[in-house]
Each structure stands twice: as structure tokens, then as C-alpha cells.
């Protein structure tokens, strides 16, 4: 019995020592500039009163023992440094409503450089969905594996008509075309990125047909859920649905899925466009 107990203890210790992924992850919350100020009702039509908001354009950098992961690449570098540049790449209406204030230093490659990471050192780029403020700079990562839901790639190339088919509208075709021959890993549902439970991609459709969120376990043991546009901001959690949804039913199901994970797992839920959350938790490491 004593030998059996000793052997069990040794095996347990070995399992702990050979599972660094859940113990070594560090997550950095960056923003590709800001949108606003603009009336919140432009994004959430059901919100009962007008108020101006300024929101971040969230991007995430994850240091994992198996490689660096970037989750979303923000606004295309071409819109940096002013409205004139914006209107050369995006539709004028997008520039006028969103009022992006992105400096060149806000772009994902410069955010990585600030942390001592080269763009070519990024192993995986996960894109939540193919809207202009999330897939803008995938072309900056020719050596990475790019992870999308397969149906979201189709959506990006040929959106539903009610979501607009202008080549530089909400879906900017050139963001995808410029990376067309890269290495894409096309998913159909949830996926354990490194096979060890430390980074999970979560299918959260509704905002778009193939939207995906991400859940990571940090070295402290804390679980963090990055909703991206499955939940834009606190007002959505308060019961006011986001606009611009592919399916309001799927959106509601995905929102509830992430809330359940938050509550049952004691996770932190970080939302892509919540200004108050970013002011407290953005531009810093979480570990």
C-alpha cells in the first residue's frame, strides 16, 4: 500500500510538472484605437435613452508555452491617423459614424513590438468574426495559422444581403483577400486549440453566422472569457440586445452560454467594446 501510494504521488507530481500550459499563460488586453464618441443607440437601438459612448476595439495577445496567440487584429492599418485615411479604405459612412481614432502605434504589429514580440513569431491568429474592426490586419501575419469558423469565411466573402455587400462596408473584402492564400484552419464549432484545455475556442454565433469567442486558463488558475462581439458591453448584459445581428435568437443563446460559463466556472468575462471594463483592465497583462 505504501509503495502504491508513493507511486500515485509521483505520477501526480509528474502530471503537474508536464502540464505547463494551464500554469504559464499570460494574456495582454490591447486596443486598436477607439471608436466614438457616438450615440449608443446607433449600436443598441433598444437602449432607452441617448448617451454618447467611446469604446475600445479589443485585441488580445496570449503567451502560451506552445506559441504566441493573437485573438483579433483590429482595424486595418490603412485607416490610421485621421479621417482622410479612413475614407480611403473604409466606407465614408463607417468613418463618420464610428469616428475611429487609431494611431499607427495602436496597430497590432506595433502592440506586439511594444511587448517584445515580432509579428512573424506569432503562431496562431484567431479571428472572432470578419467585421472590419476584428479582421483588419490578418495580412500582417503570413506565417501564422489563421483560425476561423468555416462559415464565417464564406460570410466575409459573401455577406447576407441585409448585412450589406459593399466591398468596403461592415465586411471589408480586402481584409480577407489580402490573406487569401495564407494557412487557414477552418472550424465547425468549439475547439481545444492546443489539446490541453488551456485555450478553448467557443462557437458563439448570432452577431455573425460564424462568430467565435475564446476561453483561457491563466497561470494563476483564473479562467478568462473573451466574448468579443457575442457581448459588446455591459448594456447587453443588462438586457438590451446588440444591433446588427445575423440572428437575434442565436445571439441570445450565445450570450446566455457565456454568462453560464462565467457563473458556473467563476470566470472573468471581458467584452470587446466595454469602455469602463477596458479603462480598468486594458493595456496590461493578466496572469
Please describe what this structure looks like.
The protein has 287 residues and is of the alpha/beta class. It has one domain: Ribonuclease Z/Hydroxyacylglutathione hydrolase-like (Metallo-beta-lactamase, Chain A, 4-Layer Sandwich), CATH 3.60.15. Helices cover 29% and strands 25% of the residues. The strands form two sheets. The chain has a seven-stranded mixed beta sheet, sandwiched between helices. α3 crosses α4 (92-98).
How are the strands of the largest sheet arranged? 6-5-4-3-2-1-12
What is the strand content? Answer: 25-35%
Q: How many β-strands, per DSSP?
A: 12
In one word, what is the shape?
globular
**What's the CATH topology label?**
Metallo-beta-lactamase, Chain A
Order of helices and strands: HHEEEHHHEEHHEEEEEHHEHE
The radius of gyration computed from the alpha-carbon positions, rounded to a whole number of angstroms, is 19 Å
CATH structural class: Alpha Beta
Report the mean per-residue pLDDT as an integer.
Answer: 93
- What is the total domain count? 1
Distance between the termini: 39 Å
Q: What is the CATH-assigned architecture?
A: 4-Layer Sandwich
Secondary-structure-derived class:
alpha/beta
Number of helices: 10
What share of residues is helical? 25-40%
**Low-pLDDT residue intervals, each spanning 5 or more residues:** 13-23
Per CATH, the superfamily is Ribonuclease Z/Hydroxyacylglutathione hydrolase-like
Largest sheet: 7 strands, mixed
Amino acid at each position: 500500500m505504501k509503495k502504491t501510494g508513493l507511486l500515485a504521488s509521483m505520477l501526480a507530481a509528474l502530471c503537474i510538472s508536464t502540464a505547463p500550459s494551464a500554469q504559464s499563460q499570460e494574456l495582454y488586453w490591447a486596443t486598436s484605437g477607439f471608436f466614438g464618441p457616438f450615440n449608443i443607440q446607433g449600436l443598441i437601438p433598444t437602449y432607452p435613452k441617448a448617451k454618447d459612448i467611446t469604446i475600445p476595439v479589443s485585441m488580445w495577445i496570449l503567451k502560451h508555452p506552445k506559441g504566441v496567440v493573437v485573438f483579433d487584429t483590429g482595424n486595418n492599418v490603412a485607416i490610421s491617423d485621421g479621417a482622410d485615411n479612413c475614407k480611403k479604405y473604409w466606407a465614408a459612412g463607417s468613418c463618420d459614424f464610428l469616428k475611429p481614432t487609431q494611431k499607427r502605434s495602436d496597430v497590432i504589429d506595433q502592440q506586439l513590438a511594444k511587448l517584445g514580440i515580432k509579428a512573424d513569431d506569432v503562431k496562431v491568429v484567431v479571428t472572432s468574426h470578419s467585421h472590419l474592426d476584428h479582421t483588419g490586419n490578418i495580412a500582417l501575419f503570413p506565417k501564422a495559422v489563421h483560425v476561423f469558423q468555416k462559415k464565417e469565411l464564406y460570410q466575409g466573402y459573401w455577406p447576407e444581403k441585409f448585412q450589406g455587400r459593399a466591398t468596403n462596408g461592415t465586411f471589408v473584402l480586402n481584409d480577407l483577400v489580402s490573406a487569401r492564400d495564407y494557412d487557414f484552419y477552418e472550424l465547425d464549432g468549439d475547439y481545444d486549440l492546443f489539446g490541453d484545455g488551456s485555450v478553448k475556442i467557443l462557437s458563439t454565433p448570432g452577431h455573425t453566422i460564424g462568430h467565435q469567442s475564446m476561453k483561457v486558463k491563466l497561470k494563476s488558475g483564473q479562467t478568462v472569457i473573451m466574448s468579443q462581439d457575442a457581448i459588446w458591453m455591459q448594456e447587453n448584459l443588462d438586457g438590451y440586445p446588440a444591433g446588427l445581428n445575423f440572428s437575434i435568437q442565436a445571439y441570445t443563446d450565445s450570450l446566455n452560454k457565456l454568462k453560464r460559463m462565467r457563473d458556473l466556472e467563476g470566470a472573468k468575462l471581458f467584452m470587446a467594446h466595454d469602455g469602463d471594463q477596458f479603462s480598468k483592465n486594458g493595456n496590461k497583462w493578466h496572469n
